[in-house]
User: What shape does this take?
Amino acid sequence: MTLLDAVSATAPDTHASGRPTNRPCPACRGSRADLVHELALQAPDGHPLGDGYDVVACRSCGTGFADVAASLDFYDSYYAESAKYAHEADLESPPADPDATSNNRVQVAESEHTAARLDAVAERIITFLPHTGARVLDVGCATGTLLAALRRRGVADVVGLDPSTDSRDIAAAVHGVRVEVGTLSAMPDDLGLFDCITMIGVLEHLWDVDEALRIVTDHLRPDGILYVDVPDASSYLDPYIAPYQDFGIEHVNHFSAQSMRILARRHGFETEGLVRWQPELVPGHPCSAIATAWRRTSDPQLLPQDDTQLRETLCAFAARSAADFAEIDARLEEELADDEEFAVWGAGEFTMKLLALPALQRRRLTEVVDANGARCGLRFGGRTVNSPASLTGSTAPVVVGSLLSGNAIRRAVEAMGCRAVTCSAGSRRIGAGTLP
Assistant: This one.
């Protein structure tokens, strides 16, 4: 019996209620859950999540997750080709030149707020390293900004792993750091062992967290540290960023500090340090995250106490989001009352939920554009995502498909001579995009 099996065997059996799930809980591997929300969306054509999925909360430990058995192969390809830079680019202002498609990805990768956030992460990681000669692997490293921050602090032997060849090239050109192209299911053969492995913003994306941690552990020295940073689902309401902000096609696991302790213990780790902190999602707008350092232990113990409050928080977050989207739908219906068709600027997570609203379902989508070149080429309802230049001469109203970048997109739409339709919910402020 492995340590993982021994620890799991100590978990209380509280699965008697709730419904059976399509995938096990990512924290405790519970097999029953309560429904949190039926998320409606229009995923890109061919995406396995299609028109939506159920968000559930584990009946045993409270952890939230997408109740879908999805293909790992699809997501490996998706993150390598389509999602790279997408999240951060969506939060940036669109270019002054509508014909630009953010092909200058170095600039996107080096935004000041991202660099500052990862610099703070590096400062925290350094406290857990035994010496500056420690080997560090950053899984899902993007363009190597964290690796560069560690090197500035004297840690010379740093390696990154990312599915994108662009990440590798930019990391080498900008930071001079080594990034290997690969995924957790297809690790390079010659990585070796590490004193510290970091996973920043990774676990919330993974469909099989257990398998990922098994693979990572195989590359960790016996006394090594696993440093993990995830969104704090227990704080989705405070700060409340935008409706359904962390419910989408990419974030499929929703952890709290307590569920992270459960996950660590079940995989044979003890939690050496855990902090809840608020990095900036966009300048001036914080989000909540959990940063934790785990070290291996050979001492099986009872799993930590379940997080019943997380289940309540997720349900309250879903209810508030649903109310806001109902108001957004009513606003769109009013703004588009005389229109039978529309275009949309933005091909990110917010747009995927907008397109499922009745006000837009009743109308014909003519064009989807995005200033982020990584999204161009995706298809929604048979419509290929193009650069904003394709809106030139369009008479269809343009729905602003972002809350956090809404004002900048609206100004760019109006500068092109098109009519912009913004999204808001009553007088309540939702994200940065509803400010004048």
Observations:
- The chain has two domains: 72-314, 325-434.
- DSSP finds 13 helices and 20 strands in the chain.
- The first helix runs from residue 3 to 9.
- Residues 80 and 163 are 5 Å apart (CA to CA).
